Amino acid sequence: MTTEATGQQKRGRKGQGKTLPGLYKRGNVWWIRYTGPDGRQRFETSRSTSRKGADALLILRKKQVMEGINPVAEHQLKSYLFTELADQYDAWAIRQRAYHTSKEILYHPPTCSLRSMCSQELDCADG
User: Fold this and answer.
1) Residues 6+ positions from 9 with CB-CB distance below 8 Å
2) What is the mean pLDDT of residues 13-36?
3) How many CB atoms lie within 10 A of CB 61?
4) Taking the CB of the first residue and of the last residue of the chain, which one, N or C, has fewer CB atoms within 10 A?
5) How is the chain split into domains, by residue range?
6) Which residues lie closer than 8 Å to 53 by C-beta, 6 or more apart?
7) How many angstroms from the chain centroid is the CA of residue 32?
């Protein structure tokens, strides 16, 4: 017996049909889940309340992974050296009124990457 013959309605999602594996909804926004080229699970918001938009993004990401393109690489931050950012700050801060007091840390800056730096190294460089 089918549900049409009994006159009962199916419970659950109404009128949405089947979703692709890797799509789920959080609040009103659709999120996607896929396996990246490195084999790790990636979770990303589609920034869309429409399932069709999320479907398109999921298909695009899976296509990029199949082609060997890392979709997460465009979102990663560049690794800066402290001296690079210190030079940019120095160019900006020269027009500030208290420039002579803030310049002290730039005299002996550490030469390591900011990602590997801890606050103790800044204290040592200050002194």
Assistant:
1) 3
2) 81
3) 22
4) N
5) 19-75, 82-126
6) 30, 46
7) 13
Computed over every residue of the chain, the mean pLDDT equals 75
- In whole angstroms, what is the distance from residue 29 CA to residue 51 CA? 9
By DSSP bridging, strand 23-26 and strand 29-35 are antiparallel
pLDDT tens for each residue of 46-92: 998 999 999 999 999 999 888 888 777 666 667 778 778 778 887 88
Q: Are 40 and 65 in contact (CB under 8 A)?
A: no
Query: How far is 43 from 48, CA to CA, in rounded Å?
Result: 14
pTM, rounded to two decimals? 0.49
- pLDDT band of 104, cuts 50, 70, 90: low
The residues, any chain, with a CB within 8 Å of residue 83's CB and separated by 6 or more, are 109, 111
**Token pair of 105 as six digits:** 């840390």
How many Cβ atoms are within 10 Å of 58's Cβ, its own excluded? Answer: 22
Instruction: Give the pLDDT score at 55.
Output: 92
